Every structure is written in C-alpha cells, then in structure tokens.
Amino acid sequence: MQNLTWGRCMRSQFIKARVGALGVVVTGLLLALAMPFSAFAASNTVYNATPAVLPPNVQSLGYEATSTAQFGDYVHLAGTSRKLDTVTVTMSNWALYSDYVNDARYSANNVSWTHPITVNVYSNHLDANGVPDTLLATTTQSVSIPWRPAASPACGGTAWLADDNNCYNGKAFNAVFDMSSLNVTLPDDVIIGVAYNTANYGASPILQAGPYNSLNVGISANQNVSVGTDDSINEVFWDTMFPGYSGGFKLDANWPASGTVAFKITASDGKPTNKDQCKNDGWKTFGAFRNQGDCVRFVATEEQNLPTY
C-alpha cells in the first residue's frame, strides 16, 4: 500500500511538473508574440515645448486681435520614432461664460464650449513665396475649451485670482489632436500650424462674435524646449493680415526670444513595408529588430516572421 501511495504521489508530482512547464512555455510564447507589437506601438515624445506643469495661464497670441488665420513653428524632432501619433497645443481662453449666457450656441454649458481647430503638419520645403508647400498631415477636431473663471474682486478689473495668488485674464489648457490613424511618417524637420476661424479671420470667417474671438495659442517668452529643438527662438510661421503683413503662412523673424510656440509631438516606431527600409542600418530606426536580417524576414513573410526581441 505504501508503494502504491508513493507511486500515485510521484505520478501526481510528475503531472504537475509537466503542466507547470507547459504553462511556462505557453506564457513565454504569448509574451514573445506580444512583445513585437508593443515595441512597434510605443509612443515617444519627439518634440516638446509645452509647460512641464500646466500653469493657470500662459502668454499667448489672440487670432482675432492679430488678424490671424494660422500660426505655428519650425522644429527639429529628437530620437528615431517617426510615425505621427499626436500633437498637443497649449492654448489660452479669455472668454467668460457670463458674456454668452444668452447666446443659444453656448448657454447650455457653463463649464466649457467647443470649437473646431485644425492642426497642419508640413515638411520644411518652402515655395517661391516662402510658404510651406508640402502638407504631410492635417486633422480638424472639435475641441472642448474651459471657460475662464469669473473676475475676482481681489484682482480688480477683469482678471481672476488663481491658486498661486496671481491674477490672470485667461485660462490655459491643452488641446490634444490624435493623428495616429493618418499613418504618416515624419521627416526629421517639420513645420506645425494651428488654424481656426474667428469672427473676421480664418479660412471661413464666422462673421459673428463669439468666444473664439478670445481664444489664443500659447507662445511664452523664453519657453523651454525639453525634447527636440526649435529651429529659431526668434522666428515663427504666421498667416496674418495684421498691418504690415500680406497674408500667407510665412516665416516671420520678428519674435526675439519668444518665437517658440507651445506644442508637443509624439510618434511611434513604424513598421517596414519593403526590404530597402531595412538596409544601411535602416532596421535600427524601427526599434524592434535585432539585426538587418530580422527586419528583412519580417517584410518578406508579410509580418508573419515576428522580430526576435
């Protein structure tokens, strides 16, 4: 009986060991299958000129006040990730809900209002008039914009008192534009433009007063660029009919120490679609292959031969 019991016990332990080993193999296989896709999907910040911590408000450019249709900057991207994912723009809203409480377009929501805003991504190639002539990506989103707080008696005038005990006339917020579905591969240098309509300016002026006349794009003096580089802290790209300007999204060099528009770009490692992209160390740019052969096999097998790490 003791031998029989011992035999059953040993058999049970053997079965558990086999099952445990199988579990390790299956788990390892699942991890191996998952790792390549997570490697391709990882999103990285390739340019960042937004505040590390969003302040109550930022210095900014008002589109209606400066006859602006589009405003942006020329930047150099960091790292090697180039499949465009998102563009985040730090903006400032100076509009009060109390000014639009009787406007049927906005009266139903005392927390925020919405407005279509467009982000354009261009290459750095300019036409004979100095305007970017290659549009790489564009998206228009209906952005939710917080109303700025009501005026505080402690501030006097129209400003509001923030938690930092300073008074501000606008409220900062970040607008995030998801561009991942466009499947655009960025070059190392790009020009970003932000465009929207106001009462009298933009691609299609609204011809009616509204909170969009008090909507601004952040461009703080001496703004730090934490990832990537600004082509010039003294220059922006600006489409304006302001006196002295002729319109067109052109380089403007009259922004000493304040020519850094507050936006951030994220991108992920794309997948190679042909063998040539794997050659001459091209495989390294995808961040998912061990060597050139690994990359070539991935393309040749139509993504069936997954990266080895």
3D structure, described in words:
The protein folds into two domains: 2-42 and 270-300, no CATH class; 44-268, no CATH class. It is 16% helix and 29% strand. The protein is elongated. The strands form three sheets. Strands 3, 5, 6, 10, 12, 13 and 14 form a seven-stranded antiparallel beta sheet that branches. The chain has 309 residues and is α+β, with helices and mostly antiparallel strands. It is built from two helices and 15 strands. Residues 1-12 and 14-35 have low confidence and may be disordered. The protein has helices spanning 2-41, 292-300, and strands at 43-48, 60-62, 68-76, 83-93, 112-122, 135-146, 160-161, 167-168, 171-178, 189-195, 215-218, 229-230, 236-240, 250-252, 263-268.
* Elements, N to C (H/E): HEEEEEEEEEEEEEEEH
Proportion of residues in β-strands: 25-35%
Number of helices: 2
**How many domains?**
2
Termini distance? Answer: 52 Å
Rg result? 27 Å
Q: Could you list the spans in which at least 5 consecutive residues all have pLDDT below 50?
A: 1-12, 14-35
What number is the mean pLDDT? 88
For the sheet with most strands, the description reads: 7 strands, antiparallel
Helix content: 10-25%
Number of strands: 15
**Overall 3D form:** elongated
| Structural class estimated from helices and strands | alpha+beta
